[in-house]
Amino acid sequence: MSGASEFSVFFSDERRARVIRGIFASYYHDIPDGHVVFDTNRSWTSRVALLDTMFPESRIICCVRDVPWIIDSIERLMRKNALQPSRMFDFNANGNIYTRAEILMDPEKGLVGFAWGSLREAWFGDLANKLIIVQYESLVGDPGRVMEKLYHALNEPFFRHDFDNIIYDEPDYDANLGAPGLHAVKRHIRRESRMLSIPPDILGKFADASFWANPKLNSRKVLVL
User: Fold this and answer.
1) pTM exceeding 0.70
2) So what's the pLDDT on residue 50?
3) Chain-centroid distance, C-alpha 159
4) How many whole angstroms separate alpha carbon 154 and alpha carbon 156?
5) Contact indicator for 194, 52 with CB cutoff of 8 Å
6) Up-side HSE of residue 153: CA atoms within 13 Å toward CB?
7) How many CB atoms lie under 10 A from the CB of residue 71?
8) Cα 121 from chain centroid?
9) Closest CA to 122 of 211, 33, 36, 191
10) Interatomic CA distance for residues 165 and 29, integer angstroms
11) What is the pLDDT of residues 130-173, one digit of tens each?
């Protein structure tokens, strides 16, 4: 439907909108009317204007953590699966922590960098009011309070979760990615302390990447939990 195709001349914005709504309606056909859909994809913040046009009541919940700790977690996962090169790094087994960090933080294709840049774009944009930021430290420190505030922000009735019985995993997806355990969630929500296992210069390079933690940069008054 874009200008890259010779058939784009046959699509008005109204027709494009109907096609996109049709895709959503078909994909979520089994969801009963009146239910809330949580679609997990780290690229939604790069499509805030489209979401606002198609689904003006939608909100984007952004789960954030200090970038060095994310890099550290992925590094630990790679070491745990040392026999399996990952699709995240083009199945290249010859890299090192520095090349992997650069790939992760690539603003166009990086697992972390693209999401970070897209969030930053939405954070400073005109539709920043659609964002809800959930900080990792807050969630693991007091999950009950954070979830209660999240339900309130979504204007949804509160559901009392069992934070000692969390069940979630995507083994097939992770296996295809060459990163078994990437999406596995531990059964209990606990604050765990550990030492960073990445070099200090990488820590220093991304130490100030957590812009959401700086009140002076929150000129749009984004909700941060």
Assistant:
1) yes
2) 94
3) 22
4) 5
5) no
6) 20
7) 24
8) 14
9) 211
10) 29
11) 999 999 999 999 999 999 999 999 999 999 999 999 999 999 99
